[in-house]
Amino acid sequence: METYKKQGNAVNRESLIRSAEKIPPASAKAAEEYARKKELLAAKVNEIMVQRPDILYLAGEKNMEMMKDNHSNHARFVASILRYFQPEVLTDTVLWVFRSYRSRGFHQNYWAAQISTWIEVLRQELSPESFASVYPLYEWLSVNIPAFSNISELEFQQTPEHDF
Fold first, then answer.
1. What's the per-residue H, E or C state across the chain?
2. What distance in Å separates the CA atoms of residue 159 and residue 161, rounded to the nearest whole number?
3. How do residues 25-54 score in pLDDT, each as one tens digit?
4. Percentage, residues of the chain above pLDDT 70
5. 135-158, pLDDT tens digit by residue?
6. Contact predicate 120/48, CB 8 Å
7. Among candidates 84, 88, 112, 87, which has minimal Cα distance to 98?
8. What's the maximum distance between 2 C-alpha atoms anywhere in the chain?
9. Residue 155 in contact with residue 11, Cβ under 8 Å?
10. Contact 48, 117 (CB under 8 A)
């Protein structure tokens, strides 16, 4: 899986888009299974995440409902991306989510915990064929967390009020 590229010390959005273009498309069967199970998947991710001993550190004490909403939104968004893959929409949406949730107090380590939990739940709940078809998207998300974090953190620091 190709990761983000740097220009000097700056992470490049266009490199993320180019790497997203290399994600193999999910099969129609996998996209349909994911869409059919999206509420179950989000509920299982919520169940696991709220039980983490570090969840208040990762998401913030006042953000538990927002985190759960994020997981539901994530499932709906991914179901759409699996059917209608657009690398630029994927990249820009993930960047927006990182910025938005960072501005609300989510720790940067939340993303690695969340994506690894999604992968665990997908492995358990999807058929092996569907999991294999969907996994490259989640691998891309996981591998590129540092790039998304760096871009969002730079933008977060440059926003005077830290509120989007």
1. CCCCCEECCEECHHHHHHHHCCCCCCCHHHHHHHHHHHHHHHHHHHHHHHCCCCHHHHHCCCCHHHHHHHHHHHHHHHHHHHHCCCHHHHHHHHHHHHHHHHHCCCCCHHHHHHHHHHHHHHHHHCCHHHHHHHHHHHHHHHHCHHHHHHHHHHHHHHCCCCCC
2. 6
3. 999 999 999 999 999 999 999 999 999 999
4. 86
5. 999 999 999 999 998 887 765 555
6. yes
7. 112
8. 47
9. no
10. yes
CA–CA separation, 137 and 26 (whole Å) = 8
Q: What are phi and psi of 66, to 5 degrees?
A: -60, -40
List phi, psi (to 5°) of 6: -115, 145
Give 26's contacts (C-beta < 8 A, 6+ positions apart).
34, 82, 85, 133, 134, 136, 137
Alpha-carbon gap, residue 141 to 94, rounded angstroms: 9
Sign of CA dihedral 111, 116, 121, 122: positive
Contact between 113 and 58 (Cβ < 8 Å): yes
Pick the closest to residue 140 from 4, 49, 26, 31 (CA basis).
4
Which residue type occupies 90?
A: L
Tens digit of pLDDT for each residue in 83-106?
A: 999 999 999 999 999 988 888 889
